[in-house]
Design a protein that fits this description.
By secondary structure, this protein is α+β, with helices and mostly antiparallel strands. The chain folds into 2 domains: about 5-225, Rossmann fold; about 235-315, Nucleic acid-binding proteins (OB fold (Dihydrolipoamide Acetyltransferase, E2P), Beta Barrel), CATH 2.40.50.140. Helix content is about 25%, strand content about 30%. It has helices at about 40-50, 90-100, 105-120, 135-150, 165-185, 195-200, 220-225, 230-235; strands at about 5-10, 20-25, 30-35, 55-60, 65, 75-80, 155-160, 185-190, 205-210, 210-215, 235-240, 245-250, 255, 260-270, 275-280, 285-290, 305-310, 315. Helix 2 (about 90-100) crosses helix 3 (about 105-120) and helix 2 packs parallel to helix 4. The two termini are about 30 Å apart.
Length: about 325
């Protein structure tokens, strides 16, 4: 039996938006990432799972218990919000201890748990500091420690790294992933960044307009987008080719002097460190992106130049 079962969850919020018939399973110790653009329903879904909101229909089963009608404090579900929600007037120690004290745990147990987590997350030297005295990455680890201190059955993370710079995000996400595997956390992680989402996931799924598509291994979800919306979200170009909607990744092509199947005109070229990004307007009217490594001499295309290319790999989309 799956550890988490979400069954046909539906919640109407307005005439223009609803979560519709959302279903998925999650095994114990597994990390599921749900990805989609802003406004797709990701946070709304987490609020239903943790008990901050209630569905119109459907079921939420955690560890064999139907919690659909229970309030948040009865579900044993932890949540890290986008703004972290750390108490600024409390020291790091008291922030981590907060949930345990709310459960009226013995102070000796509280101290032991706080020290264990602080050592695991390498913030034991910060316990007497206030949140305003530590870095963004350290606050992230404090929020994680506070959320897992009461030993939740399930941890939900709502775009927890959106406020961090790129390098710090990469460091913190690797720490969270390593920590989750070490202690066997069951997690649902949501983000609008598909690269971050795939990295964090054992399984992944895409959600658009309140509807969740299939979930599966990250490489499978990436390699076989099930719709044009999914393909574009994942960074694919989508063009009409041989009478079919065809998606291809910006690296899955090769320039050709002869026998080119696609022709276009370069509109912009920019260097981004590890690649050159070309915006190309095709003869068919679509504008696409192509990425080329600096080591490939064939990239040297100037604005206004004509180029022909063929695809090394493509995905035919059948919406």
């Amino acid at each position: 039996m799956p550890f988490v079962e979400i069954r046909n969850l539906t919640r109407r919020y307005s005439r223009n938006f609803s979560l519709t018939d959302v279903s998925f399973d999650l095994e114990g110790g597994e990390s599921l990432t749900l990805m989609g653009p802003s406004g797709s329903g990701k946070t709304s879904l987490l609020r239903l799972i943790c008990g901050l909101d209630f569905p119109d229909s459907g079921e939420i089963i955690i560890d064999g218990k139907n919690v659909t009608g229970l309030h948040a404090k009865m579900r044993n579900v932890g949540m890290i919000f986008q703004d972290l929600a750390i108490f600024p007037h409390m020291r790091v120690y008291d922030n981590i201890a907060y949930g345990l004290r709310a459960q009226r745990e013995n102070e000796g147990i509280v101290r032991k748990r706080v020290m264990e987590l602080a050592e695991l997350l390498r913030i034991d030297h910060l316990l007497q500091n206030y949140p305003g005295q530590i870095s963004g990455g350290e606050r992230q680890r404090v929020a994680l420690a506070r959320s897992v201190a009461p030993s939740p059955s399930l941890l939900l993370l709502d775009e927890p790294m959106s406020s961090l710079d790129t390098q710090l995000r990469e460091n913190v996400r690797s720490e969270i992933k390593a920590f989750a595997k070490r202690v066997g956390l069951t997690m649902i992680y949501i983000t609008h960044d598909h690269r971050e989402g795939f990295y964090m996931a054992d399984r992944a799924g895409l959600i658009f307009d309140g509807r969740l598509g299939i979930t599966g291994a990250p490489d499978e979800i990436f390699s076989h987008p099930e719709s044009t919306v999914a393909a574009r979200f994942l960074g694919y170009n989508v063009i009409r080719m041989d009478g079919e909607e065809t998606a291809f990744y910006p690296t899955d092509f090769e320039f050709t002097e002869n026998n080119s199947s696609i022709w276009g005109t370069v509109k912009t070229v920019g260097f981004e460190g590890e690649l050159f990004r070309l915006h190309v307007q095709l003869d068919s009217g679509e504008t696409i992106q192509l990425w080329q490594p600096p080591s490939d001499s064939a990239w040297k295309k100037e604005v206004g130049s004509r180029l022909g290319f063929r695809l090394r790999r493509k995905v035919v989309i059948k919406d």
